[in-house]
Amino acid sequence: MRAIKIAAAQIAPIAGNIQQNIKKHGTLIQQAAEKSADLVFFPELSLTGYEPRLVKKLAMQADDPRLEVFQRLSNQYDMVIGVGFPSSCPEGIRISMLFFQAGQAPVLYSKQHLHADELPFFVPGNEQVVLKIKGFTIAPAICYESLLHEHAESVVKKGAQIYLASVAKSAQGLAKAYLHYPEISKQFALNVVMANCVGPSDDFVSAGGSGCWGQGEFTIGGESDVLMMAQFGES
Length: 235
Known about the structure:
Order of helices and strands: EHEHHEEEEEHEHEEEEEE
CATH architecture: 4-Layer Sandwich
Low-confidence stretches: none
Shape: globular
Strand order of the largest sheet: 5-4-3-2-1-14
Radius of gyration: 16 Å
CATH class: Alpha Beta
CATH topology: Nitrilase/N-carbamoyl-D-aminoacid amidohydrolase
Mean pLDDT: 97
Number of domains: 1
């Protein structure tokens, strides 16, 4: 039987303070390692906070030296680490996640489906990536697109068994997610794990409530800087 343990990190990012947010990430990554997680991932734009109006000065390249700490931690703990940040590209700025894997080059995923409110600040990504970890196929989704049936369907066609939803959602958005994720989990036989942030985000307040749907459904409350652990197995 194969199994994988995933940690969703629910944090309260400090708006625009990349260095302090890196420290927050490091603390939770260490905690995830102590819980024997195979993968830990963070909410949307976790390194900067969800602050579209600040992204022009906060955007980074995937090879920014400040991100090297995550490769070192991935190597040290033999754990996949997914962090959120605004990434610069020739077309503009994308909402991205960077996945660090021990002894391998990082994998960049950029949000393909933007909410209308994001269009003045960001450009969409153009490729869905999947990760192969411990025999499981894992697909990332970033906030708005994780509420689209067509996105879930597209990753299932790529063989995804686990769907990582990295989000920044208010209480209202969370209510929609709590209806949608169980539905796609059942429809596509897909395990869904969501990591939300907590606290001020742009012009709303992120409400936490990270959760898991599929094998062993559960959610956590609105605490900040905590981990939600989910384990999946196949015989």
